[in-house]
Design goal:
Helix content: 10-25%
Number of strands: 15
CATH topology: Penicillin V Acylase, Chain A
CATH superfamily: Penicillin V Acylase, Chain A
Radius of gyration: 16 Å
Strand content: 35-45%
Largest sheet: 8 strands, antiparallel
CATH class: Alpha Beta
Length: 239
Amino acid sequence: MCTLILAWRVLDDAPIAVAANRDERLGRPSTGPAVRDGPPRYLAPRDEEADGTWIGVNERGLFVGITNRRTDLVGERSRGQLVLDALSQPGTGAALSVVERELAEREYAGFNLVLADAERAVLLAWDGVLRQTEFVPGVHVVVNEGHDESAAKSRRIRTALVDQPDEPEGGTSTQTVADWWTRAKRVLRDHHVGACIHADGYGTRSSSLVSVGADGAVHYEFADGPPCETDYRRVDGQL
């Protein structure tokens, strides 16, 4: 997954709201989001080639999402398996410990991993050295090259979010997750900012909208194709 937008603790009805595009080889097999057995149970799509996932949320309200990070590292285990390891935990702190232990024991290719629950949101960047960023309440953008102001693509996407019609400065005063998703979907469909990609044999394969409500309820909408030409549909069997 190569674009992940996280609205953390800024919406009235959802402490966690995510809008994300997955960019991948067009021939890599995958299946859409479904509830998977735990414990805890989790809702996520599946990478059928490596038996992992790139995004998901569990019944405890923990969200996990990953993007690749361009490095020369070669992993002995899929990064998508690391996402599953994190989703097996009750919260951000426990998931962070699992990731740190895995990195100490096995080799992984580079990644940016977001862990978020209602109390804490963390970005883990791995390029041979693990760098941890504690997110403050707000809207954060994670891409392959970095996050927020550290990468040109994330800066373009943040600017596009702010420039949406009727969007307040900073993009943090939206009242409902539905309103915020409406604006975020426009950005995920945007080719100019590089959120939606079409290339030879590679491109944006799918798009996900995920939220954890103030009451803990999970909502997931999925576009099984480029969001510029594919409708989002609510996933059956919500947690």
